[in-house]
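Sequence in, structure out. Go.
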Amino acid sequence: MAEPRDVLERVRSVCLGLPDAHEVTAWGEPTFRVRNKLFAVYASANTHHGGGRPSVWVKSTHVNQDLLIRQQPERFFKPPYVGPSGWVGIYLDKRPSWATVDEVIRDGYLLIAPKRTRGQGGSRPR
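Output:
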């Protein structure tokens, strides 16, 4: 299993690699935003947010949240507080697929990024 610091650095690298993204500490955790709108929150394993497992909570739609959780309930979950709004949680222990983590984070970013920013590299190649 990756060290918690390595996991956070991977999440940070993906999030901050997106155009105009920035990090703000809120609720004792790193949060990732564009134009101060949240698209991802890191949840440490040792806080009540993480519940013993490191994870990242990502802005999503209800449809994608439902699909991901149904397909892999051992990897995806409905996070507290923001889950009812469609956000999806991704457990980051037990060898996550970083390609999938990257894709879900990019999708969350695209839900809130301004149109002009999306064209600067936020979209995934098809």
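Check: Residues 4-121 form a domain with the Aspartate Aminotransferase, domain 1 fold (CATH 3.90.1150.30). Residues 24 and 120 are 22 Å apart (CA to CA).
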